[in-house]
C-alpha cells in the first residue's frame, strides 16, 4: 500500500467535473482578471470569516506583505512572531523593511508562547504576527489582550487555518487583519498560487486594494509604490467550487485526527499537541503532526542516530534524530510523511547574517528535530489510516 501525505487526485473524483465547468466558463468569458468570480469569492469568503472585507491577492506571502504595508509597518519597526513556521512569515516582515522579533513556542501546543510576548516588546514594536500553525488557533484572547495593552496591531497568519475557529469565531477575523494562502495543498486550495486578506477595517481594506494594484486608487493615478498582486478569475472560480465544501472537508479531517489521537496517544515515544482537541478550538487539521521523542533505536539504525544530516547547512541543522529514522522506515513501507520545519527561520542563513545575537528558542529548535506530519486528507480511508498506525506501532514496539 502506498499512502501520500496529501492527495488532490481523490478530491478530483468528487469535484473534477464542477472544476472543469467553472474554468471553462471563465475561459469563454474572456474576463481573466477581476470580474464576477473574484467578487463572488471575496463576498463568500468574507461571510465565512464573519468580516465585512476580504481582498484577494496573488499569494499568502503577498497577503502578509500587503497587510503589513497597509498598517504602515516598515523600516525601524519590529514585529513579534515565531521562528517555527514557514519562511514567508518572517520574510514578509523583512520585505517591508521591518524586523522580525522571534519568540519561542509553547512545548505543549507548538504555537506562539503568549507568556513571552510582553518581554519581547520594545519601543519599536508595532505588531504581533501569530501563526495558526498546522491549522490550530493561537490563544487569540491572550494575544489581543497584550496587543490592546501596548497599542499594537495583530496580523494573523492563517495560511494553514482556513475554516478554523477560536471560541466560536473564525480565525482571520479575530485580529486587525487575517492573511490566507490558497496554495494547492491547503484545505482551501486553488490550482496555483492565491491568497487573501480579511479585515473589519474599511480604510485598511481600501489601502490593501490600492497596494495590490500598483498603489492605484483610480485608473492611472498612483499614490503608493504598490504591487501587481491579484487573485485571478480562474483561481477564484476554482475556490468558489471548493469553498462550500470546506466545512465538510474539515469535519472529515477532524474525524481522521481524532482517530489518530485515539490510536497513537498511548505510544510513549509519541506526543501530540495538547490543545489540538480542546473545547473552544476548531482545528482545520491542515496537517496532523506528532512529536517523536528520543528512544533507543541503536539496534535498528546502526548508529545513524548520531549521523549528521547529509544536507547540513553550516552546522545549523540538528543531528539526525529518531524522527528521521521513523520517517525513513515509514517511507520503506509506502507511507509518505513530511517534516515541518527542519530548519527554523532564525537559523536560516539569511537571518544568521542579519542578526548575530544568540536567540534562546530551545523549544523551537527541539521541535524542528522531532516533529513529523502524518498523511491526512478528507479522502483518507480507514483502511489506509489503520495501515499507517499499524506500521508506526510495529516500528516503535520493536525499537
Offer a few descriptive terms.
alpha/beta; 399 residues; 13 strands; 2 domains; seven-stranded mixed sheet; single chain
Order of strands in the sheet with most strands: 1-9-8-5-4-2-3
Number of strands: 13
Task: Give the termini separation.
Answer: 23 Å
Mean pLDDT: 92
Write down the oligomeric state: single chain
Please name the fourth-level CATH homologous superfamily of the largest domain: Type I PLP-dependent aspartate aminotransferase-like (Major domain)
Stretches where pLDDT is under 50 for at least 5 consecutive residues are 301-319
How many domain units? Answer: 2
Describe this structure in words.
The protein has 399 residues and is of the alpha/beta class. Helices cover 38% and strands 13% of the residues. The protein folds into 2 domains: 9-245, Aspartate Aminotransferase, domain 2 (3-Layer(aba) Sandwich); 247-397, Aspartate Aminotransferase, domain 1 (Alpha-Beta Complex). It is built from 14 helices and 13 strands. Helix 1 (9-29) packs across helix 8, helix 3 packs parallel to helix 4 (88-95) and helix 3 (60-70) packs across helix 7. The two termini are 23 Å apart.
Amino acid at each position: 500500500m502506498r499512502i501520500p501525505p496529501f492527495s488532490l487526485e481523490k478530491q478530483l473524483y468528487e469535484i473534477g467535473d464542477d472544476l472543469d465547468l467553472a474554468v471553462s466558463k471563465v475561459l469563454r468569458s474572456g474576463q481573466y482578471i477581476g470580474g464576477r468570480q473574484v467578487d463572488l469569492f471575496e463576498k463568500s469568503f468574507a461571510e465565512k470569516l464573519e468580516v465585512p472585507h476580504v481582498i484577494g491577492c496573488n499569494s499568502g506571502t503577498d497577503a502578509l506583505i500587503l497587510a503589513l504595508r497597509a498598517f504602515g509597518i516598515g523600516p525601524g519597526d519590529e514585529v513579534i512572531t515565531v521562528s517555527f513556521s514557514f519562511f514567508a512569515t518572517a520574510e514578509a516582515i523583512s520585505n517591508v523593511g521591518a524586523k522580525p522579533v522571534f519568540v519561542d513556542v509553547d512545548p505543549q501546543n507548538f504555537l506562539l508562547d503568549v507568556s513571552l510576548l510582553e518581554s519581547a516588546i520594545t519601543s519599536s514594536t508595532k505588531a504581533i504576527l501569530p501563526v495558526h500553525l498546522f491549522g490550530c488557533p493561537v490563544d487569540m484572547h491572550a494575544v489581543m489582550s497584550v496587543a490592546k495593552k501596548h497599542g499594537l496591531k495583530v496580523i494573523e497568519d492563517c495560511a494553514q487555518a482556513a475554516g478554523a475557529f477560536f471560541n466560536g469565531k473564525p480565525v482571520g477575523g479575530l485580529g486587525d487583519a487575517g492573511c490566507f494562502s490558497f496554495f494547492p495543498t491547503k484545505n482551501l486550495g486553488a490550482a496555483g498560487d492565491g491568497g487573501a486578506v480579511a479585515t473589519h477595517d474599511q480604510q485598511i481594506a481600501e489601502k490593501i486594494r490600492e497596494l495590490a494594484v500598483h498603489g492605484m486608487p483610480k485608473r492611472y493615478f498612483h499614490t503608493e509604490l504598490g504591487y501587481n498582486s491579484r487573485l485571478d478569475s480562474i483561481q477564484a472560480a476554482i475556490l468558489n467550487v471548493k469553498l462550500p465544501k470546506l466545512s465538510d472537508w474539515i469535519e472529515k479531517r477532524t474525524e481522521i485526527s481524532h482517530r489518530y489521537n485515539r490510536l497513537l496517544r498511548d505510544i510513549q515515544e509519541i506526543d501530540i499537541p495538547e490543545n489540538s482537541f480542546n473545547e473552544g478550538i476548531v482545528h482545520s487539521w491542515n496537517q496532523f503532526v506528532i512529536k517523536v521523542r528520543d528512544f533507543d533505536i541503536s539496534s535498528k539504525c546502526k548508529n545513524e542516530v548520531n549521523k549528521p544530516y547529509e544536507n547540513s547547512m553550516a552546522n545549523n541543522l540538528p543531528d539526525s534524530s529518531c524522527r528521521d529514522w521513523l520517517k525513513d522506515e515509514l517511507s520503506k513501507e509506502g507511507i509518505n510523511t513530511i517534516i515541518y520545519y527542519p530548519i527554523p527561520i532564525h537559523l536560516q542563513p539569511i537571518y544568521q547574517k542579519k542578526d548575530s545575537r544568540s536567540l534562546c528558542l530551545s523549544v523551537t529548535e527541539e521541535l524542528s528535530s522531532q516533529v513529523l506530519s502524518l498523511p491526512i486528507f478528507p479522502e483518507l480511508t480507514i483502511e489506509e489510516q489503520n495501515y499507517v498506525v499499524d506500521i508506526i506501532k510495529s516500528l516503535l514496539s520493536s525499537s
